[in-house]
Write a structure and sequence with these properties.
The strands form 5 sheets. Strands 5, 6, 7, 8, 9, 10 and 11 form a 7-stranded antiparallel β-sheet that branches. The chain has a 6-stranded antiparallel β-barrel with strand order 12-14-19-18-15-21. A 4-stranded antiparallel β-sheet has the order 1-2-3-4, with helices on one face. The chain folds into 3 domains: 8-143, no CATH class; 152-255, no CATH class; 274-366, Beta Barrel (Thrombin, subunit H), CATH 2.40.10. By secondary structure, the protein is mainly beta. The two termini are 22 Å apart. The chain is flat. The protein contains 5 helices and 21 strands.
Length: 369
Amino acid sequence: MKKFSTIALVLAFAFPALGAMPAFAQDASGASGNPGRTAGGKCSFRPDAPDKHVVVRGDTLWGISGKFLANPWCWPEVWGMNREEIRNPHWIYPGQIVYFDRVNGRLRLGQVVTGGEPSGTTRLSPQLRTQGLAGDAIPAIPSNLIEPFLSQPLIIEENDLLTAPRIVATQEGRVVLAKNDKAYVRGDLRGGTSFQVFRPGVALKDPETKKVIGFEAVFLGTVKLDRVAKSADSVDTFTVVSAKEEMTVGDRLVPIPPTPILNYVPHPPEQAVSARVVAVYGGVGQGGQNNIISINRGASSGLNLGTVLELGRFGETVPDPTDNKKPIKLPDEKYGTLFIFRVFQNISYGLVMQVTNTVQIGDIVASPE
């Protein structure tokens, strides 16, 4: 199975003032055959790193950085970026060129000019960028794979089910609702006019404790308020704006969240994480590259958007054929990387960025080494 390379330092191009920032530390071997290694040996350039890469439409920061770097989780240490800078990076745009300064062991960002040569290093002061993904900007990861999951509930806490507005009747007594149909709703709208409709789905159980830690919501579509109830014993009237699946009586409404900001940056967790795979999205038993999975750790464990974790599997216990078949435990094996893009209190969703094996429920998820 194809293995993705790593992310990180090209993400630092979000701050292209390379001349004003620390260079990649380089030991004595860095300039001759082993370029760009930090003093601690954690962060190194790939031995087959190219001299340059011209950014084109469809590139991602993950893919670009994988051409140059061996490990993703050392970049905050190298660049010394603070939390606000990590949350709000600049972006790289098509037409810019990333090139490898092998003498100094650093990457630089320039512009392509006539003749295809870089026009020189862009020297800009770091500035915060708070708006969402703009125009032709290059995203951190393939955004089309996660966008549908950024604005849908995914996880519904049990208490939220009890208080969410609900569909109590349908237009002309129809069994199911489709686009442009009327839905009659009761419950506290809290001033909202646009809502998503969902149905409580599978209960997610923690592989370690076996307790239910949330309910995966089934996203059905969206509705918009037409008429407000005239009395306490009346109903609010909604029109179905979009219908991904059929809606019916009993389905619940949640306000449509604001458009998410996609300019997060991949980074290792700030504290050690030991988690397990809860489920592969879609109800299947196994997953692979570019699949969405959930894990049994969330904001309460220090996870946030862009956290990078490693996937692994517990080693099997097998009989030793050389010693009377005594049981021996094989070592745990790492097989991939997970990019966290949606975080709830006790559950997170991640995109599988690279794997050399299938992802299975119960597999190990841990901080990268």
